[in-house]
Amino acid sequence: MSIKRSPDEADGVPDAAVAALGARLRAVRLRRRETLESLAGRSGLTKSFLSKLERGRASVSVSALLRICSALDVQLAEIMNGPEGRLVRAGGLTRVALGGEGLTEYQLTPGDEHRIQVLLSEIEPGGGSGAEYYTFPVEVEFVHVIKGRLTVSLEGEVHELAQGDALTFVSVPHAFHNPGPEPATVLWVMTPALPRDERSVSR
């Protein structure tokens, strides 16, 4: 299965999903009456980087994105733009940005589904979650390589997955990247879904 990259990405225009993520982060920051300086201090990231991220001009590792969410006291799921309705057509996939570099990701389950969350990722050669390990607040993660190769690094373990391989693991600190020369298409399943706060966050 091949996922086509948008024309905007090919032309060097800010990636739409990353820009939307930055805009939602900025909206949450302003609603919390948080300055870039204070957010930088509590997240361990620079003010310049956070400014670029909010404008969709910088990518962020999964670990750094989770630190930003923690500093803003907001759940990651609250700033995602999951699909509405139970039926998700192939031609109408909803792009999401959960951090990382060289990733094109889609959520296949509804945004309000709490029991399970399924993501489809295309990972460019060398792309992945970033150098830092991260942990999602879920119980179990499952990854299936549809095409290409994927390296998943867990605590004390490194798993090299090829096309058709699958890995199930308790959500512990981990990272992943595509070590191959071709894009990798990967299916991720998390259970339960990433938690959401009851309070509403604008999208």
TrEMBL record:
The keyword DNA-binding applies. Keywords: DNA-binding. Residues 25-79 form the HTH cro/C1-type domain. It comes from the Bacteria. SMART domains: HTH_XRE. Pfam families: Cupin_2, HTH_31. This is XRE family transcriptional regulator.
